[in-house]
Amino acid sequence: MLVIMITSVLISNLPWKGFEIIWTILLRIIYATWIIVPLLILRDIISIWYKIPAIFMLILSAIWLWFGIYKWTTIKITPLTISNNNITKNYKIVFISDIHADIIHNTRYIQSIVNHIKKIQPDFVLIWGDLMNTAESSYVDAFLPFNQLKIPIYATLWNHDHMWNSGAVLEIFKKTNIIALRNQSIEISGLQIVWIDDKSYRWDKKLTDILNDSKINNNGEFTILISHQPQKLSKLDWYPINLELAWHTHNGQFIPFTWMIGLFNDYTYWKYNYNNMTAFVSQWIGSRWAPIRIWTQSELVLIDLISKN
Fold first, then answer.
1. What is the pLDDT of residues 257-296, one digit of tens each?
2. What is the CATH number of domain 76-307?
3. How far apart are CA 25 and CA 7, in angstroms?
């Protein structure tokens, strides 16, 4: 397994396009193997008392992998309703993250996301980074379906968008109607939205410095913080933030990582509250490299902001 992983990484750095296909196949073999390992462990435990036919394990493994692929390809719409006195009118917002476009997750995949958004008819769309799995110009046209949406679309960049050719992601913003935002705050018809960079690309700046540089203001507007990696709400207590939206954890994507992800992040998945602030961590819409999800599901978050006035 280790040899396959090292080989795939070395191949991924070679220029020929065919090597990318080989690299992708090798990675899928690795992830598929990781998915099947729990079944093999279970078989070994049961085999202490009972003999399990090989054909039974093959069928069970096939069902297990099919289930993982189904959970990736089926996009779940997760509702998030927030009511607050600072909300001046009702909003419907679509929040998606971690598209991870690559040689497999391409135009057809992104078109399916756009089709879901069309049915919802939100006021605007927020895309939280990792647009590409590894930044390459060949993936740029996959994002053209977003031009079918006649509503504002905002996005920012995160760690995967800087891998290899970081300029490739900037091409997306030139060829589509997606608006790029980084380390700044903007106002959208009564809402203040603050975007901050991933920890990997803050050039040793502290979170407080980033928030101050973003020119966040305390003028009574409902304020949403966009953060790639979940920030513990207690760290944000000095700022007028009402809602933090984050992702990055993937909720582990599949076992055993779904059990371990909490060891490395302040928050893992779902809704968290602290004083008058709320954080929501998405398990994101795509998959990283392998098109498989076990105990998690591809997710599009539909945010309803309700005015109490």
1. 666 676 676 788 889 999 989 999 988 786 665 667 777 8
2. 3.60.21.10
3. 12
